[in-house]
Design a protein that fits this description.
Strand 2 and strand 3 form a beta hairpin. The chain is α+β, with helices and mostly antiparallel strands. The protein contains eleven helices and ten strands. Helix content is 42%, strand content 14%. It has two domains: 105 residues, Phosphorylase Kinase, domain 1; 179 residues, Aminoglycoside 3'-phosphotransferase, Chain: A, domain 2 (Alpha-Beta Complex), CATH 3.90.1200.10. Strands 1-2-3-5-4 form a five-stranded antiparallel β-sheet, sandwiched between helices. A three-stranded antiparallel β-sheet has the order 6-8-9, with helices on one face. Helix 5 packs parallel to helix 9, helix 6 runs antiparallel to helix 7 and helix 7 crosses helix 10. The N and C termini lie far apart (57 Å).
C-alpha cells in the first residue's frame, strides 16, 4: 500500500494536482498551482491561477462532502447574505489518488481573527444573520445529519461515551461535576421541529473577512439538515462578553438549542483539552440557568 493511501496529506501534492488536471481538465492544466496559505485538515487546497482552487479530501471520511457540496452549494448560495464556495467542476479518482475532488471558484478574504475583524459586535450580528438565512433555506431533500456531517446536526448523544471518558480524564483540571451537569442538560433536550439547514463548522477558520467585515463563509463539508445547535458553538470559541450577548440575541434560538450548543462546545473542548473553552461553556451554563 502506498503512503498516500495511509496518509492522504502526505500523498497530495501540487504535482498530483497537475497530473489530475492533465487527465481530467486539460483546459486548466497549464495554470500555476500553489498550496493555499491557510489549509484545513480534512482537505488539501491548491490555488489554480487567479480564479480557481482544487480541493482534495485527505481521507475517505471526508470524500462524501465532494458530491454533497457539488449538489447543494449552488442551491443554497442565492439565499445567503454573503458568498459561499462556488462549485465549478468535480474530479474523479485517478493517478493513484482514491477520492473524488473538487474545483471551486477562489474567494478573496482573510481568515476571521481578533486582528482582522474590525467590530466584534457587528461581526456577531453578521454571523447570526448568515445562520438564520441558512436555516430559512428549503431543507426538503437535503442530506440528513449522519456520518457525512460527523453527526453534527444530530443529537450530541452520539459522542456520549467520548465525553464521559474525557470528563474522567480531566476531572482534576476542570469542574467535572458542573461539566457533567452541562452535558446532561444537553442530552435532556432535543430538536423536535422539522430539520433545518446547518453549516456544521461555523468556526473562525471558515469565516472570511474583507475590510474588517464578514465577506464569505467557506467549507460546507459537515453541512446538512437537522438540528442547528452545532452552529452556535462559535459563541464560546470566538465571541465573548458583549459580542456573545449580541450573537445570542441576534441568532434567536431557544434555551434547549443553546443547551445542546453548550454540549457540542463542551464535547469538542474536552476531547481537545481546550480548557479555556470549557470554562466559558461552564460560566455560560451558570449564567443562563440561574
Amino acid at each position: 500500500m502506498t503512503d498516500h493511501h495511509q496518509d492522504g496529506r502526505a500523498g497530495i501534492s501540487a504535482e498530483l494536482v497537475r497530473r489530475l488536471l492533465v487527465d481530467q481538465f486539460p483546459k486548466w492544466a497549464e495554470l500555476p498551482i500553489a498550496p493555499v496559505k491557510v489549509d484545513g485538515w480534512d482537505n488539501r487546497t491548491y490555488r489554480l491561477g487567479a480564479e480557481l482552487t482544487a480541493r482534495l479530501p485527505t481521507a475517505a471520511a471526508y470524500a462524501a462532502a465532494v458530491d454533497k457540496e457539488h449538489q447543494w452549494l449552488p442551491i443554497l448560495a442565492p439565499a445567503l447574505p454573503v458568498p459561499i464556495p462556488e462549485a465549478v467542476a468535480k474530479g474523479e479518482p485517478g493517478q493513484g489518488y482514491p477520492h473524488r475532488w473538487a474545483i471551486r471558484r477562489w474567494i478573496d478574504g482573510s481568515t476571521a481573527s481578533l486582528e482582522t475583524v474590525a467590530d466584534l459586535d457587528e461581526f456577531a450580528r453578521a454571523v447570526a444573520s448568515f445562520i438564520l438565512a441558512l436555516q430559512q433555506c428549503d431543507a426538503s431533500g437535503g442530506p440528513l445529519a449522519g456520518a457525512h456531517s460527523f453527526y453534527r446536526g444530530g443529537p450530541p448523544a452520539h459522542y456520549h461515551s467520548e465525553t464521559v471518558e474525557a470528563l474522567a480524564s480531566l476531572k482534576e483540571r476542570i469542574n467535572a461535576d458542573l461539566a457533567r451537569e452541562v452535558w446532561e442538560a444537553a442530552l435532556a433536550t432535543s430538536w423536535d421541529r422539522p430539520p433545518v439547514w446547518f453549516h456544521g463548522d461555523i468556526a473562525h477558520g471558515n469565516l472570511l473577512v474583507q475590510d474588517g467585515r464578514l465577506s464569505a463563509v467557506i467549507d460546507f463539508g459537515t453541512s446538512g439538515v437537522g438540528d442547528p445547535a452545532c452552529d452556535l458553538v462559535i459563541a464560546y470559541t470566538f465571541f465573548s462578553g458583549s459580542s456573545r450577548s449580541v450573537f445570542r440575541d441576534a441568532v434567536q434560538q431557544d434555551a434547549g438549542t443553546w443547551a445542546r450548543a453548550r454540549g457540542w462546545a463542551l464535547w469538542k473542548a474536552l476531547i481537545t483539552e481546550d480548557l479555556p473553552v470549557v470554562e466559558r461553556v461552564l460560566d455560560d451554563h451558570l449564567t443562563q440557568t440561574q
